[in-house]
Amino acid sequence: MLNIENCENVEKEILIEGLANEEMIRQRLFRRLEFLLLKDLPKLTRFCHGNYLEFPLLRTLRIESCPTLKTFISDAEGNSSEIASPTLFNEKVTFLCLEELSIIGAGNWRKIWHDQLSNSVRIHFTNN
Asked: Where does the source fall among the domains of life (predicted)?
């Protein structure tokens, strides 16, 4: 379980690019994570800076009150306009076991997912 809450100055959470053993870190960083909550992060523009990220066991993802969230992962540098994405989750994010996705008061995307999402995922979306 990972809860990231009430951090008013956080703009991005995880930086992977340029680290030694980058590929190994990318594959192992969240390999046992089953629950992720991002809540009350008013300046968060992306969760991860990098090329690709795996969440092999993540079952529940909740994003609440993250109004400036543009995308979940991006390797763009600079200001938030450079990381603007029409989708929250692009092909760079892999959720193999996701069962529940809850988004409350976050972002302004044309699509949540870049591709067809499994029918087994329960989605709750409210944009305040």
From this structure: Eukaryota
pLDDT the model gives residue 113:
75
Q: How far apart are CA 80 and CA 94, in angstroms?
A: 23
- In this predicted model, what pLDDT tens digit does every residue of 70-104 receive, in sequence order? 888 877 665 555 455 567 887 777 788 999 999 89
How many CB atoms are located within 10 Å of the residue 121 CB? 15
Range in 10-14, 38-42, 96-100 the model is least confident about: 10-14
SS3 28: helix
The alpha-helical segments, DSSP class H, found in 75-128 are none
Burial class for 41, CB neighbours closer than 10 Å (0-12, 13-18, 19+): buried
In the three-class reduction of DSSP (H, G, I as helix; E, B as strand; rest coil), residue 51 is classed as coil
Global pTM reads 0.79
Say whether 5 sits in a helix, a strand or coil.
strand
Any idea which residue has 């200001």 for tokens? 79
